[in-house]
Amino acid sequence: MARRPQRRHQRKRPAPAAFAPVTLEILEIGARGDGLAEHAGRRVYVPLTVAGDRVRAALGEPRGDGVAATLLEVSEPGPDRVAPPCRHFGTCGGCALQHLEDAAYGAWKRSQVSAALARAGLAGAEVAPTVRTVAASRRRATFAAARRGGRCVLGFNERSSHRIAAVTGCLVVEPAILDLLAPLEALLCAVLPDGGTADVAVAVLDGGIDLLLTGGPEPGLDARERMAAFAETHDIGRLSWRRSATAAAEPVAARRTLHARFGGIAVPVEPGAFLQASAAGEAALVEAVLAGVGPAARVADLFAGLGTFTFPLASRVVPGAAVHAVEGDASTHAALVAAGRGQAGVTAERRDLFADALGAEELSRFDAVVFDPPRAGARAQSVQLAASAVPTVVGVSCNPATFARDARTLVDGGYRLEQVTPVDQFLWSSHVELVGVFRR
User: Same fold for the domain at 1-83 and the one at 140-261?
Assistant: First the structure.
């Protein structure tokens, strides 16, 4: 990407009337992707800035240990500022770092992992270079939709707002998703009442595209017919609706059975089920997990989900390879069990590992343990792992902070954190995933 020309007055926005503008020097980029500055002894968070920027900003409401600010103008750009490639950047809240030069962006992602480990007292751990994924590779995304005054808008929420930024193009998602945006907007304008809102989850699966509409009134006969016709016209594998994020999904048009494939095994996927954001990101995580587990034969896969790691682990050419997958969600566990039938060495258990972690003695029968918890981490399970004699533990995380907390528990229990590999599959966001390998 070409660097932004060195010129003044690049970005102007109206200042909130209650706050006088201030001039700030951006010192670094913080964990959420905002630039950090100091003013009157307080930390200031300025979105859409990079280190070295000299900016005018309007101070706003308190935020954490400092104050949020609105960027008014970049007076002097920093050395790593570039022109963002997407015309929606700055309004759409989907990306936070398109204005950061590519090498600096990759280094920043890696630094977020290193910083989290350092805060936990693990500054000496080796952090490998970030494994990067490319643009237009994200296979799932959730869009927001609303109908107001007879008009419909489909897109992503604006930064720190419930307002929807209409998206006519996106550099992150797969082309198959991008091609659906315009016809989806027309469909939603036809089926949503005025004032209605909905979330639209789109996933590219083995067997076709999966569409899940969440919110809005229950579709009547006319809406269902429109939705079924849409699925037929655009070759949608499955189109479902649910009242809320916690309600069961109701298929409106189920034209094909949809699967995800892990280690060559087809696993049935229910509407809204969790998948890694991209196939390339998933492959990078699987590769790092397999390398960490190595020749260990008996492996426990905790927080196993649909079997992202279960089936690749089971397919290894290792004498006596056996994988015990543990998952708490009922429907996800059922899909895992169904896919695992007939697969040699695969067993599955439904168990809430937050409330009922595998104990140290239970863990003793395994040669290695893989754990991949949600963003909250695996505090209770880490305590039991730290007390166990398992030779190898591999942690997968989408939250460096909670991973570092759990890693501290394992290290205090006698493990050595051998290496951490960052994986960037949420392009231009502040999120980074990782795989950490622990050995006794």
Answer: yes
CATH topology of domain 140-261: OB fold (Dihydrolipoamide Acetyltransferase, E2P) (2.40.50)
Catalytic residue among 86, 92, 95, 398: 398
Residue 189 designated active-site: no
What's the pLDDT tens digit per position in 5-64? 444 444 444 444 446 799 999 999 999 999 999 999 999 999 999 999 999 999 999 999
pLDDT per residue as tens digits for the range 219-245: 999 999 999 999 999 999 999 999 999
pLDDT of 33 reads 97
pTM over cut 0.85: yes
Domain 106-133+275-439 is in which class? Answer: alpha beta
- Assign domain 1-83 to a CATH class: mainly beta
pLDDT of 68 over the 60 cut: yes
CA angle 57, 59, 60 (to 5 degrees): 130
Dump pLDDT digits (tens) for 388-437. Answer: 999 999 999 999 999 999 999 999 999 999 999 999 999 999 999 999 99
- Categorize the per-residue pLDDT at 150 as very low, low, confident or very high, splitting at 50, 70 and 90: confident
Domain range summary for the chain, segments of one domain joined by +: 1-83, 106-133+275-439, 140-261
